[in-house]
């Protein structure tokens, strides 16, 4: 989640510091106020290229820093750990652009390349609009979104396993045919690696178990304190606890049973609640007793995980892949150790592995086709509500059986195709001409796929281009819907959209005789009412306009 941004001497901004909330945030302001400047700043700190024009006139440099909470984002944590960039749950990205056009990038205070900054940025923010930061246009993201919607991911895992087996045999056959590898050198290296993994002796699923135990022990004090507080509230508090109150309530209701039998069922419900409170208290006590605060155990867990992470980093894999990777190295070593390998025999094994792979990959392809058909219909339906009546969305799959197209993801080339208007043939998503249409198509996709997306923060720019009235309200509601489990930012000119936001930012242009600057403020309730009213009524704001604005805010 994007937590804050600090901008100094960027474009016409002197200094801006904004704290962001979860949910949906609207960015509004009069035309020309500079709403795009804030997005430009975010894109720069996420790895876009910069030039000297972005430095405020009279300043020697522009400085932009953003803060992200990555504590719940495993992909970002793994990336930061891989590059040893001090992952502590909070991630600071900084970009400094000199007046001469040169720039520097930092992640958690460490200098990084622009490529690294961009790679991490793509895991943190997805910007929808007429911008480069649009992961939905990338083939691999389209495939990931489709696969995340599959009813069962077993075929994905099986296809990946069979591909690894085929690839290993193919590599070995090539090695034997070309005799291009120094066999003994490779064997020695694999033996060294295998010994390293044997000493680590990591079992399947152990990493997750170790991480869970480490988290539990490292937070044992907090856990014990919190559960103790809950136990006191439920059962042990001498002055007043829920058990006593429920018990008293049962006695009171029992005294009324002879007066009105219709209270019997209610009395039983309260008795059931009392029993559950007693059971919960007992379970919590048992849980507390099971926590063993052992510093030696915590040190051992830390060392064990550090050792595993060190080996994973050495082989440029994630810590969860260690067991499978060790197995593949062992298999390769076993193959190399075979004496008198027969090329013909290896070819037969490779052909059989290819057949096994294709069988599973074709099953995966069929499942993808069925899922794609369902998703296409669902997204097309949402498009109709977003001002694109008659438009359509289609996920196309091109399945290629040739071995040159084998991959760990299967044999399918996946492409998102759209038609924004009736009568037009579908074309690739990245070929859609209108930025407003592209934004709304992206919104339709996100409404359906938001649960499966891997990126926690979405920015929508110009999603309300060319729409108004009821459609604008629907767009706002769709954005708020996505914001139930994601962080959503929306640059908008429409009060129907802005009124749906949990947080409202206003961009203002300030002109003096000397200079022009832009400021961004977080609106309170009264200020937000005035801004919605301005968006409704223009420069002249009447009591009727304010009443309309208040009604829109209240109807969220």
Please describe what this structure looks like.
The protein has 556 residues and is an alpha/beta fold. It has three domains: 1-133 and 452-523, 3-Layer(aba) Sandwich (Rossmann fold), CATH 3.40.50.300; 182-341, no CATH class; 524-556, no CATH class. It contains 18 helices and 15 strands. The strands form three sheets. The chain has a six-stranded antiparallel sheet, covered by helices on one side. Strand 14 and strand 15 (516-522) form a beta hairpin. Helix 5 (154-178) runs antiparallel to helix 13 (343-384), helix 7 crosses helix 11 and helix 13 crosses helix 14. The chain is globular. The two termini are 23 Å apart. The model has no long low-confidence stretch (mean pLDDT 85).
């Amino acid at each position: 989640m994007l937590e804050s941004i600090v901008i100094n001497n960027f474009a016409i901004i002197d200094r801006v510091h904004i704290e962001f909330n979860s949910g949906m945030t609207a960015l509004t302001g009069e035309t020309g106020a500079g709403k795009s400047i804030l997005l430009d700043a975010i894109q720069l700190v996420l790895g876009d290229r910069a030039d000297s024009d972005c430095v405020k006139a009279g300043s020697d440099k522009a400085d932009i820093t953003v803060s992200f909470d990555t504590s719940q984002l495993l992909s970002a944590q793994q990336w930061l750990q891989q590059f040893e960039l001090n992952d502590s749950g909070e991630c600071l990205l900084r970009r400094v652009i000199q007046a001469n056009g040169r720039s520097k990038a930092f992640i958690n205070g460490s200098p990084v390349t622009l490529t690294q900054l961009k790679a991490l940025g793509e895991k943190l923010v997805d910007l929808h609009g007429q911008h480069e930061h649009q992961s939905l246009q990338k083939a691999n993201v389209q495939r990931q979104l489709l696969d995340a919607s599959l009813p069962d991911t077993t075929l994905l895992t099986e296809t990946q396993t069979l591909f690894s087996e085929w690839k290993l045999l193919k590599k070995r056959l090539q090695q034997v045919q070309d005799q291009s590898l120094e066999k003994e050198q490779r064997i020695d290296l694999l033996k060294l690696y295998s010994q390293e993994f044997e000493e680590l002796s990591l079992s399947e699923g152990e990493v997750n178990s170790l991480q869970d135990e480490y988290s539990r022990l490292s937070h044992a004090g907090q856990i014990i304190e919190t559960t103790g507080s809950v136990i006191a509230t439920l059962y042990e508090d001498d002055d007043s606890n829920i058990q006593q109150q429920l018990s008293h309530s049962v006695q009171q209701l029992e005294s009324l049973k002879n007066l009105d039998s219709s209270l019997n069922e209610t009395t039983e419900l309260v008795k059931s609640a009392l029993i559950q409170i007693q059971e919960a208290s007992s379970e919590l006590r048992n849980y507390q007793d099971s926590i063993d605060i052992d510093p030696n155990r915590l040190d051992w867990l830390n060392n064990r995980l550090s050792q595993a992470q060190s080996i994973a980093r050495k082989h440029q894999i994630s810590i969860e892949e260690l067991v499978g990777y060790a197995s593949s190295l062992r298999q390769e070593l076993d193959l190399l150790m075979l004496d008198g390998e027969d090329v013909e025999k290896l070819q037969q094994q490779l052909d059989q592995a290819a057949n096994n792979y294709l069988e599973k990959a074709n099953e995966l392809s069929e499942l993808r086709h069925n899922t794609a058909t369902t998703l296409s219909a669902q997204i097309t339906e949402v498009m109709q509500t977003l001002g694109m009546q008659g438009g359509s969305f289609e996920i196309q799959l091109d399945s290629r059986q040739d071995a040159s197209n084998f991959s760990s993801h299967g044999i399918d080339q996946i492409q998102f195709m759209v038609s924004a208007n009736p009568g037009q043939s579908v074309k690739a998503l990245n070929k859609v001409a209108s930025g407003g249409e592209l934004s709304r198509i992206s919104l339709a996709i996100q409404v359906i796929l938001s649960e499966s997306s891997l990126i926690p923060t979405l920015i929508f720019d110009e999603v309300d281009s060319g729409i108004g009235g009821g459609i604008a309200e629907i767009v706002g509601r769709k954005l708020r819907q996505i914001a139930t489990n994601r962080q959503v930012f929306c640059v908008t000119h429409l009060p129907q959209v802005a009124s749906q936001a949990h947080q409202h930012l206003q961009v203002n242009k300030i002109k003096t005789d000397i200079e022009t600057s832009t400021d961004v403020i977080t609106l309170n309730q009264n200020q937000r009412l005035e801004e919605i009213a301005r968006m409704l009524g223009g420069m002249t704001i009447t009591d009727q306009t304010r009443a309309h604005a208040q009604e829109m805010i209240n109807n969220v």
